[in-house]
Amino acid sequence: MTYAIVETGGKQYRVQVGDTVRVEKLAAAEGDSVVFDKVLAISKDGQITVGSPYVEGAKVTAKVASHGKARKIIVFKYKAKSNYRRKSGHRQPFTAVTIESIEG
User: Fold this and answer.
1) For the purposes of burial, counting CB atoms within 10 Å of the CB of 43, is it exposed (0-12), middle (13-18) or buried (19 or more)?
2) From CA 51, how far away is CA 76, in angstroms rounded?
3) Residues 32 and 18: beta-carbon distance below 8 Å
């Protein structure tokens, strides 16, 4: 089982070929290929290669499946005894990518 740990959008994801992962929104159209070159670690046949900070020459290729917005979260600020209440919502945009290959 081959997997990699990639960094994108300030977060880290453990991916393997065939996975569909929701990452922070990318500036790419649906159907485009995206290359993640910030690969922190690769595991191939039980051998783990860890970069410092990134693995040299490693890259993960993915295809953009869709764009969307996550479920709404409610942001509610409240202070007791002072009649202070603020309610707002937020939906974080995301890009769903399907991992096609892991090289390195």
Assistant:
1) middle
2) 41
3) no
Place of tokens 């990639």: 6
d(CA 56, CA 75): 41
Length of the chain: 104
- Per-residue confidence in pLDDT tens, the chain, 104 aa: 899 999 999 999 999 999 999 999 999 999 999 999 999 999 998 899 998 999 999 999 999 999 999 999 999 999 999 999 999 999 999 999 999 999 87
Whole-angstrom distance, CA of residue 31 vs CA of residue 73:
29
Supply the pTM of this predicted model: 0.84
